[in-house]
Amino acid sequence: HTNQITRTRNELSRHFEGRINLIRKEELSRLQEMAKIYENLLAPTQPDGPAVIRQILRANLAQDPKLNAKVFKYISVTNQAVIIRSLLTGEDIDAELYKNIIQNHRKTMTADAIKLEENETP
Fold first, then answer.
1. What is the per-residue pLDDT for 90?
2. Cα 76 to chain center, whole Å?
3. At 116, is the pLDDT very low, low, confident or very high (cuts 50, 70, 90)?
4. What is the rounded distance in angstroms from the CA atom of residue 54 to the CA atom of residue 101?
5. Are the beta carbons of 57 and 97 closer than 8 angstroms?
6. Looking only at Cα atoms, what is the longest distance across the chain?
7. Is 75 exposed, middle or buried (CB count within 10 Å of its CB: 0-12, 13-18, 19+)?
8. Among 13, 65, 105, 115, which is most buried by a count of CB atoms within 10 Å?
9. Does residue 5 lie within any of the structural domains?
């Protein structure tokens, strides 16, 4: 009887871990897809790309304050810079949105992202 309970518990645990991994993979896929959309919106052929992205970022902020930072880490550094520049320059400066992205981006950084290169000094 005890062995059956142990086996059942282990089986449920494996099933639960499998579901968690599936959910993580699905979230990763969605975040990467959103990042690709942002990258495409920032293409030179797209009119008003930064303005459209700003509207998307604002909508995301209302839905989930951490969502922008999660997507941000899958956007190229060049396009991250374009987005940041668009938030902090011009008539429509949006320091609140910038602050939210940067604060949450720091929280989502992995250890690999903050390691110094061999020739860098802190």
1. 72
2. 12
3. very low
4. 12
5. yes
6. 71
7. buried
8. 105
9. no
Q: Which of 52, 51, 65 is nearest to 102 (CA)?
A: 65
Does some domain include residue 92? yes
Residue 10 token pair: 């282990």
Q: Does some domain include residue 55? A: yes
How far apart CA 99 and CA 90 sit, in angstroms, is 17
What is the domain count for the chain? 1
Is the CB of residue 46 less than 8 Å from the CB of residue 6? no
106 contacts 68 by C-beta, under 8 angstroms: no
Q: How far apart are CA 72 and CA 107, in angstroms?
A: 12
In terms of pLDDT, which residue wins out, 63 or 92?
A: 63
Q: 56, 92 in Cβ contact below 8 A?
A: no
Q: Which domain holds residue 66?
A: 34-110
Burial class (CB in 10 A: 0-12, 13-18, 19+), 47: exposed
Q: How far apart are CA 31 and CA 71, in angstroms?
A: 5
Would you state the pLDDT for residue 72?
A: 92
